[in-house]
Amino acid sequence: MPKRKGRPVLHAVTVLALLTGSAYFTYELRKDEQAKVPAAQSITDNADLQNSGAKATGKQTWERLNNPARSVLRDGKGAVVATFTDGARTATLKGPSRTFAEPANTASRVVTDDWVRLMPEPWTKGSENEQWFKDWFKQYYGSQEDDIFAIAFQYVQGAPVKKDSSGVPYAGDAVFGPFKEDGVDRLEQNDFYDYLGIPYTFRNGSTLYPRKERYRALDCSGFMRMVWGYRARFPLMATNALGDGLPRSADGMARSKTGVDIIKIQGPSPWYVRPTNIDVLQPGDLLFFKMDHRTGNHIDHVGLYLGLDTDGHRVFISSRKEVNGPTMGDKAGASRIDGNGFYAQLFRSAKRL
């Protein structure tokens, strides 16, 4: 009997279709989806600077911009290819369009061609000429290896469990934390090693141990430490005071010298004031909020800025009590920092790692 040659190809196509239809994270390259998205958020200082280096030259060109100081790489047609901020390891690279969605908690969707990655060293003026950068850029520009956004969405409701070679589940649906004794509020201070259920030794030699009742739990800063630190390998402090790298709490992160302050905390404590201009934000920035009078002068919430959703609003993802885990949802439907919604009114500062 002759072999049926078409079946393996048909099977591969079927599997691919199922994967791309995943509820929590999909790749979309369709032009009709991209056409629905508002114009890309400006990463320049103002409308005049947006096109300052956008002339078609037929070859890649570098441009220096301020506020914050950064280098922008443009393609031969003048379109932005990548952005690198002085003092930050975060790089935003253009790549294939993707859709991030979380239908269990919000109708908001983000269709983006921004890929957020960590460089091995902080950017400085002229780094484009350094060999470390040339090697890194060659490896990651155009790569579809998981970036910061892809990693973050591996913890939303319905995300499948992923295990490492030792059988430790390092990804999958995370909760914010177990209930307190009152059965109403949830316990905070759930770090990435609580989620993993394994001890973790930090670079300063400190070893911290997980608590069984907090297994698979990540509070807001624990979620950021999981994504940036444990998964993307950004250095982590054991606490807000021990070691170097990303501190333990939202307040520690907001006030740390680590990274670059894109929007500084301003106004009188304990509530501070909402920023008047958020145009300088770039996908991948850490966003900080003042939400609870019980935390005194402390900044008490942190999230990851995703950019514009398909309705043209600036949205973010974070872990919180109301949804019980990582989400881009909100009581009002979506986590927005523009307009006058709950999180928009409580937004206070931003940092680029």
TrEMBL record:
NlpC/P60 domain boundaries: 182-353
Spell out the molecular function terms from Gene Ontology: cysteine-type peptidase activity
What is the protein's name according to its record? NlpC/P60 domain-containing protein
Q: Could you tell me which InterPro entries the record lists for this protein?
A: NLP_P60_dom (IPR000064), Papain-like_cys_pep_sf (IPR038765)
Which BP terms from GO are recorded?
proteolysis
Family, as annotated: Belongs to the peptidase C40 family.
The organism is Streptomyces naganishii JCM 4654
Keyword line: Hydrolase, Protease, Thiol protease
